[in-house]
Specification:
heterodimer; A: mainly alpha; B: mainly alpha; 7 helices; elongated
C-alpha cells in the first residue's frame, strides 16, 4: 500500500484561488526571492500563489531572451535609419535651398516688373506736365492768373504808394 | 507609430514564439486548473506586448516589464475565472474564492484528504514560525535553495531547518494515529 503524499494533501487543501489577494507585482517580487513574513505565510497557505511564483521564475529566462531579441532588432533598425538619415537630410536640404532660391528669384522679378510698370507712365506725365507748363500755349492764361502775387509788387495798389499818397498830407 | 514592414514581421514572429512558450509554461505549472485557458493567455499576452511596442518603440522593453505583462494577464484571467465560477454558487463559496475539486476523486477520498489536511495543518500550526514556513514552502514545491533565498540563509541552513520541521511534523502525525506519510 502506498503511503499518502504529504505534499499532495497539503497542496490540495490549499488549492483555493483567492483571486482577490492576487497581485502580479507581489508575485514577481516573491519570484525574485524577496518576501515579508506575511507574504511568505500567504504563499505557504496558497497553492495558487506558489504555482504563480514557480511560473514567474520559469518565465524569467524566456522574458530575458525576448527582451534581448526585441532590443537587438530595434537597435539594428535605428542604426540603419541613422545611416540613411544624413544622405536624406543633405538631399532634402539641397531641395529646400532650390525651392527657396526659386521663390526669391520670382519675388525679385515680380518686384522689378511691378516697379517698372508703375514708374514708366509717371515719369512721362511729369516730363510732359513740367515742359507743357512752361512752354504750352494753352496754359498761358492759367499762368497769367498765377502771376497775381508776383504782379502785386508792380501793382498800382502797392503799399509804398501809400507813403506818397496825397491823403497823407505829405 | 509606423514600423517598417520587415521589422514589424520579425517583431510579430518574436512575440508569437514567446506566446507559445508562455502557453507551454502555463501547461507545465498546471495553471489551467485555476479555470484559465492557456490559448487565451497566449493571445492576450501577444496583443498586450504588441500594443506596448506600437505605443513607444523607444521605450525600454525590459524583462521585468514583459514578466509583469504576462503575470497581469494570468492574474486577470484567474480573477475572471474565479468570478465566473463563484457566480452560480454564491451560497457555497465565499466572494472571490473558489475551491477546485478533483473530479476524479470520490467523496470518500475527498473526505479522507480533507481530514488528513486538517490534521497536517493542526500539527504544522504547533511548529515554530520559521520551521512551519519552511515546511509549508517545501510542501508547496519550493526547493531548499528557494527556501533559503526567502529566508536569506544558505541552502544548507534551509535544509537543516526543514529537516527538523518535517521530523517534528511526522512525529506529531504519528502520535495522532495518522501513520506514515511520503513527502
Amino acid at each position: 500500500m502506498t503511503k499518502p503524499n504529504l505534499s499532495d494533501i497539503y497542496r490540495n487543501g490549499t488549492r483555493r484561488a483567492e483571486s482577490d489577494s492576487l497581485d502580479a507585482d507581489a508575485i514577481l517580487w516573491l519570484a525574485d526571492g524577496s518576501a515579508t513574513d506575511a507574504q511568505l505565510d500567504r504563499v505557504a497557505a496558497s497553492a495558487l500563489h506558489a504555482d504563480l511564483i514557480h511560473f514567474a521564475r520559469d518565465l524569467e529566462n524566456e522574458s530575458v531572451a525576448l527582451s534581448a531579441s526585441v532590443e537587438g532588432l530595434l537597435r539594428a533598425d535605428s542604426a540603419t535609419h541613422r545611416r540613411a538619415t544624413p544622405a536624406r537630410r543633405t538631399a532634402s536640404a539641397r531641395r529646400g535651398w532650390r525651392i527657396a532660391s526659386a521663390i526669391a528669384a520670382s519675388f525679385v522679378a515680380a518686384v522689378v516688373f511691378w516697379n517698372a510698370g508703375r514708374m514708366q507712365p509717371h515719369q512721362s506725365t511729369q516730363t510732359m506736365a513740367s515742359s507743357d507748363r512752361i512752354f504750352a500755349g494753352f496754359e498761358e492764361r492759367q499762368l497769367a492768373q498765377q502771376q497775381t502775387r508776383e504782379d502785386r509788387i508792380f501793382n498800382g495798389a502797392f503799399h509804398s504808394d501809400e507813403i506818397f499818397n496825397s491823403r497823407t498830407g505829405g | 507609430m509606423s514600423l517598417d514592414p520587415a521589422l514589424r514581421a520579425r517583431l510579430q514572429q518574436l512575440l508569437r514564439d514567446y506566446g507559445r512558450k508562455v502557453r507551454l509554461l502555463i501547461d507545465k505549472h498546471g495553471l489551467g486548473q485555476y479555470g484559465i485557458d492557456p490559448a487565451d493567455i497566449e493571445q492576450e499576452v501577444r496583443i498586450r506586448l504588441w500594443r506596448a511596442l506600437e505605443r513607444d518603440r523607444n521605450a525600454a522593453f525590459h524583462t521585468s516589464y514583459i514578466q509583469r505583462t504576462v503575470l497581469s494577464t494570468v492574474v486577470d484571467a484567474i480573477r475572471a475565472a474565479s468570478f465566473r465560477h463563484a457566480e452560480p454558487l454564491p451560497e457555497e463559496n465565499s466572494e472571490g474564492v473558489f475551491e477546485l475539486v478533483e473530479s476524479a476523486a470520490g467523496p470518500e477520498r475527498r473526505a479522507g484528504s480533507s481530514q488528513d489536511f486538517g490534521a497536517i495543518s493542526a500539527c504544522m500550526a504547533e511548529l515554530p514560525e520559521r520551521r512551519r514556513q519552511a515546511v509549508a514552502l517545501h510542501l508547496q514545491g519550493f526547493s531548499f535553495r528557494e527556501i533559503g533565498g526567502f529566508f536569506g540563509v544558505s541552502e544548507e541552513a534551509a535544509r537543516k531547518l526543514l529537516d527538523r520541521g518535517m521530523e517534528t511534523l511526522r512525529e506529531r502525525l504519528k502520535t495522532q494515529g495518522y501513520g506514515e506519510f511520503d513527502d
